[in-house]
Amino acid sequence: MRIDIESGPRCTCQVPSGQGTVFRRFDRPPQLFGRAQMRSRIFAVSDVHADHALNFEWCRSLCEGRQYADDAILVAGDLASGMKKLREALMVFKQAFGTVFFTPGNHDLWVVKDANNAHVTSLQRLNEIFALCDELGVLTRPAYVCGAVVSPILSWHHQSWDTEPDIVGWKGIPKAEEVMSDFFLTRWPDGLRCGELKLAQRLDVLNDDLAQRRMLSSNGVQASHGEQGGSDGDGHGGGG
Description:
Elements: E1 11-17, E2 20-26, E3 42-45, H1 53-61, E4 72-75, H2 83-96, E5 99-102, H3 122-136, E6 143-145, E7 148-152, H4 176-179, H5 182-185, H6 197-211, E8 220-223
Parallel strand pairs: 3-4, 4-5, 7-8
Antiparallel strand pairs: 1-2, 1-3, 6-7
């Protein structure tokens, strides 16, 4: 089974139906059928951007009534662009849900605007995030919960994903590296550049260390922040 991740603070949850299992999307995880009939569920959300006050309040609202205490949630990136707010948001999710998974998105790896870490690279920030998750008990590796293996997957965009033809007849369109924040708010070690396949492959290799792929089965949930996450074995994006 698979959970599709949508942009914006929206959630997906598993809903029993007479025709089998289906997935429906909600602006916030609903209370469904009472806990006696639905003992545990898996939710997924991305692009919460808890740096914004209203979004952070939305996160806090999930703690009301402890209605998700037996459930799991996979937070698939872009939770916050600084370590302080990332910690606060993950702690809120831990308070609301029984099990929390996290995989970083591009905003989570922004470092250039962080005056306290003027020389930290985005790979170092990734290690800081892993250490924070370990401290808080947030899972970044596959685990079996609610009857399925949930697998957070690291990914990064690269320009070979873009198979659309170039726009013609419209002058003045800036290059992606001139307008996309990732190109000037992330910082990478020598030899790695934002938007290049080599960077996406470098992060994908980390999945081999984190994911223990032998755990994955047909009865599993996989998600990355990228629209196409994972790998087909050659470092190219597979299904997220």
